[in-house]
Design a protein that fits this description.
CATH class of the largest domain: Mainly Alpha
Strand order of the largest sheet: 1-5-7-8
Shape: globular
Mean pLDDT: 91
Helix content: 40-55%
Radius of gyration: 20 Å
Order of helices and strands: EEEEEEHEEHHHHHHHHEEHE
Number of strands: 11
Distance between the termini: 25 Å
CATH topology of the largest domain: Four Helix Bundle (Hemerythrin (Met), subunit A)
Largest sheet: 4 strands, mixed
Number of helices: 10
Low-confidence stretches: none
Length: about 300
């Protein structure tokens, strides 16, 4: 079942719960209920209106049903994430498997993450272009743990050609112009969905493969989202080419649509939000020694 994504940005609402239904109340309360959605049908709630309020019961019940809640800041970019911890029956054993993962295993897994990311970046560049050929070559050069930082080498080539040579585009991780704001919003949405899939598999999002910032509670999500960033890049480029250059409700809907877009994973096709669970399961199998390779969602038409 495809879980629903709810975005709150057009007007201030109050979120409450009644009989396991998320009630979206207009404010003031006498204005009535805008919508009522079964909590079990919700996968992601994105709140982008500063005057939105919540009942504690609403947040708690959403988490109990496995939904993730994303809070946006004054720039309309996601700045906080609530994930449903503790719902998996094997959470303790999964945590121990993560803790026991050897350094060589983590380095091999990071190699696969970087290779998948660089290949997906290459797929976004013009076919048979020098940049695409160079990225594909770099993907084959990644060593265990990526000691040569191929990821950064590839990024320099990729962003120089992503919008076309001479575009003058500069990547700004803090928001920046409309292009960067769209990229950052899309990345954060997919990151939240990845985090939700990881905790649904019983994994703890703070214990990363490569990322290990002590102030980051979602290191593992930041690791596993890397090969999916080019999906966002492609969508943002399409928006730019269509003249939709700002981050607004219309472009947000386009980016949110990535979660329901059809991808391939493990020989099957389906929505990205569902495919992420297959990716998380493959990571569990690698921790357990049952598999050696991670599987990542791939866009339709892309070579495996």
């Amino acid at each position: 079942m495809i879980k629903r994504v709810i975005e709150i940005s057009q007007e201030p609402l109050h979120l409450a719960v009644e009989l396991d239904q998320l009630r979206l109340h207009r404010r003031p309360p006498e204005s009535g209920v805008l919508a009522s959605v079964p909590c079990e049908d919700i996968g992601l709630v994105i709140v982008d209106h500063a005057e939105t309020t919540y009942s504690h019961a609403a947040l708690a019940r959403l988490l109990e049903f496995g939904a993730a809640v994303v809070i946006c800041d004054r720039r309309h970019l996601p700045s906080g994430l609530l994930l449903p911890l503790g719902n998996h029956t094997e959470g303790v054993s999964r945590l121990q498997e993560q803790i026991d993962a050897s350094r060589p295993l983590l380095k091999r897994l990071w190699k696969q993450v970087v290779q998948a990311k660089v290949r997906n970046q290459a797929a976004n560049l013009v076919e048979d272009s020098p940049g695409r050929r160079r990225l594909l070559a770099l993907a084959g050069e990644v060593k265990s743990g990526d000691p040569a930082n191929v990821e950064a080498q590839a990024a320099k080539i990729y962003w120089a050609e992503w919008l076309g040579s001479g575009s003058g585009f500069r990547r700004d991780f803090d928001g920046g112009d409309g292009v960067n704001a769209q990229l950052n919003y899309g990345y954060a949405v997919v990151r939240a969905a990845v985090g939700r899939a990881l905790v649904s598999a019983g994994l703890h999002p703070a214990l990363g493969i490569h990322h290990c910032n002590r102030a980051n509670a979602f290191c593992l999500a930041d690791d596993m989202v890397e090969p999916l960033r080019p999906f966002v890049d492609r969508a943002v480029r399409e928006l730019q080419q269509a003249g939709q250059q700002a981050l607004n409700p219309e472009t947000k809907r386009k980016l949110l649509g990535l979660l329901t877009g059809t991808v391939r994973v493990g020989g099957q096709t389906g929505p990205l939000m569902v495919a992420l669970h297959g990716m998380a399961a493959s990571l569990v199998h690698c921790y357990q020694g049952r598999e050696k390779r991670l599987i990542f969602p791939q866009e339709r038409g892309q070579e495996a």
